[in-house]
């Protein structure tokens, strides 16, 4: 990790993350929260999805294209074909885990009452591709050549991924308890590590996008939560 702070490219990467964190904090406080308070249904979903696509997917794609291929671990992160076995095993484990979790909590398998059709967009079609593009496609992809091994890169980007969720946790109403926030950070950090490992293992963003999207969908569909 010391290497990152000493190298010019590493400092630039950390600065970019800091700028994005600040931007996302401002968007969460002055855009996302008011949108949720003043709108509902498809209008709310459309407005939230629009800013997510611009701020995450748009920024991620721009940074990837503006970065020299030699500065990236995987020059074409959207490339195909992808390695099937790691993807299918990870997807199967994730589905099995969430199905078992839902059955343990509810003693049956059904669509939870809190599920809304609008969640299909944010939790299935939008979030996965946006977050994977920026954090695995760019931040992890740019970070990996700057450190000595995969594990260091995976841990750092997992922490970064967890921390970027803080603006949402701090603006949730009613307020989340400290224990809940810490629990959420640990869960998101572990998922960030998993998605990052899948990206480096398969050399493609698509496995992580699919697994991430399936995770988010099943959480709101059968487990309950948002």
3D structure, described in words:
With 226 residues, the protein is mainly alpha-helical. It has one domain (2-223). It contains nine helices and no strands. Helix 3 (41-66) packs parallel to helix 5 (119-143). The longest helix is centred in the N-terminal third of the chain and has 31 residues, at 8-38. The protein is globular, with a radius of gyration of 18 Å. The model has no long low-confidence stretch (mean pLDDT 93).
Major pleated sheet: none
Number of strands: 0
Indicate the percent of residues in helices: over 70%
Structural class: mainly alpha
What is the chain-wise order of helices and strands? Answer: HHHHHHHHH
Number of helices: 9
How would you sum up the global shape? globular
Kindly report how far apart the N and C termini lie: 33 Å
Uncertain regions spanning at least 5 consecutive residues:
none
Radius of gyration: 18 Å
- Please state roughly what percent of the residues sit in beta strands, choosing from under 5%, 5-15%, 15-25%, 25-35%, 35-45% or over 45%: under 5%
Number of domains: 1
Give the overall pLDDT as a whole number. Answer: 93
Transmembrane segments: 12-33, 53-74, 86-104, 124-140, 152-170, 176-198, 205-224
GO molecular function, one term: endopeptidase activity
Family: Belongs to the UPF0177 family.
Domain CAAX prenyl protease 2/Lysostaphin resistance protein A-like: 118-218
């Amino acid at each position: 990790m010391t290497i990152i702070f000493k190298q010019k490219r590493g400092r630039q990467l950390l600065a970019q993350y800091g700028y994005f964190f600040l931007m996302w904090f401002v968007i969460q406080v002055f855009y996302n929260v008011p949108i949720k308070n003043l709108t509902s249904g498809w209008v709310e979903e459309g407005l939230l999805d629009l800013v997510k696509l611009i701020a995450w997917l748009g920024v991620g794609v721009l940074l990837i294209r503006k970065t020299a291929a030699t500065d990236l671990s995987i020059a074409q992160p959207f490339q195909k074909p992808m390695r099937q076995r790691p993807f299918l095993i990870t997807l199967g484990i994730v589905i099995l885990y969430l199905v078992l979790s839902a059955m343990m909590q509810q003693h049956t398998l059904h669509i939870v009452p809190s599920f809304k059709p609008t969640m299909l967009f944010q939790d299935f079609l939008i979030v996965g591709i946006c977050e994977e593009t920026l954090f695995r496609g760019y931040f992890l992809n740019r970070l990996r050549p700057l450190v000595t091994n995969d594990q260091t890169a995976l841990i750092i980007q997992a922490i970064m991924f967890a921390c970027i969720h803080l603006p949402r946790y701090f603006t949730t109403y009613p307020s989340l308890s400290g224990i809940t926030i810490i629990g959420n950070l640990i869960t998101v950090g572990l998922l960030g590590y998993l998605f990052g490992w899948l990206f480096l293992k398969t050399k493609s963003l698509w496995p992580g996008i699919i697994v991430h999207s399936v995770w988010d969908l099943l959480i709101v569909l059968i487990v309950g939560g948002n």
